[in-house]
Amino acid sequence: MDAGRLNLDTLSLFMRQLVELGLSYASGQIPFGATVIGTVSTTKKAAQAKEDGCHHVIMYKEEDFETRVNEITSGKGVDVVYDSVGKDTFQGSLVCLKSRGYMVSYGLSSGMPDPLPMTALAAKSLFLTWVSVFSYTSTRDELLQAAGEVFSNVASGILRVRINHKYPLSQVAQAHEDLEGRKTSGSVVLIPDGVFEQSTIKATARAISASAPEAATMVKAIRVHEFGGPEVLKWEDVEIGEPKEGEIRVKNKAIGLNFIDVYFRKGVYKASTMPFTPGMEAAGVVTAVGPGLTGREVGDVVAYAGNPMGSYAEEQILPAEKVVPVPPSLDPIVAASVILKGMTAHMLVRRCFKVPYTLLLHFRP
């Protein structure tokens, strides 16, 4: 069955796992006879995976997952591996695939895999791909379709969101340390210090916009001046001006924390400038719009994921075409925690390739 023809239930069950656990694997109740094998690092995450419908859960720190997958599949292997871990699971994942299987990498939480000769794929005619959600939401229509489906499913209760950890933005270094130290589960969000209450979000936005001077003002943001550990995340004053044509200014309500932020902090992915402000997703309220802009107004609640990077800030300037409206029924904190993960799941099950019957999902360590 073509991924583009998946019914909504299939998509919803798949995304539910990713949203609740930071994973991307389908529930045991997924149609088409799919069997889901998940690897996790802790007993707590194993229990959560089972609760959410994973057929088989492997504690890969205690068990050899290659051997267990071979046992579970009676030596046949799996149709596809979704791997956000990288180095620790990459080679073993190739072993677990059946002939003409798909290896889908979309993260590096344990580091970059060792170099792989192309001939390593030949024996079983394997397919290997690295996917990025930003390539699948590069047009305005793609972005609206993916984000709209995610938000709709959350608002209707099809998707459940677990926000297990909240940190003040000024304490993002601790959040990064906990994320890398495997002390977190589910979604992690950063809350700008002294953020306004949701009940007064639009009134506050209009008041801010009305009183804001035309000249550049200063806001607090996290800046990275050199690559390294969490200690390189600095809480600083930065200058922010007025939005230009095609731009809006957004006061962030909540900021999603993702492993891609760690990659940029360490220099695994290279920022276009140095110093830079990390952060790839957030939700907030529009406080100013550029000259001549239509379709957005002060007080709108919006979310975004992707470029331009820089959501680790109290306020930021964004291209208007990069944001999506947040439904009134959806808390902006929830929107910030789900938009990037949700659109990633949307990409994996609806856009990448045919839906498999047996899949192996590696959760980050």
From TrEMBL:
Domain Alcohol dehydrogenase-like N-terminal positions: 245-327
Source species of the chain: Rhododendron williamsianum
Signal peptide as annotated in the record: none
Gene Ontology molecular function: mRNA 3'-UTR AU-rich region binding; NADPH binding; quinone reductase (NADPH) activity
GO cellular component, one term: cytosol
Cited Gene3D superfamilies: Medium-chain alcohol dehydrogenases, catalytic domain (3.90.180.10), NAD(P)-binding Rossmann-like Domain (3.40.50.720)
Keyword Oxidoreductase attached: yes
Alphabetical UniProt keywords: NADP, Oxidoreductase
One Pfam family, short name: ADH_N
Record-linked PANTHER family: QUINONE OXIDOREDUCTASE PIG3-RELATED, QUINONE OXIDOREDUCTASE-RELATED
Name of this protein: Alcohol dehydrogenase-like N-terminal domain-containing protein
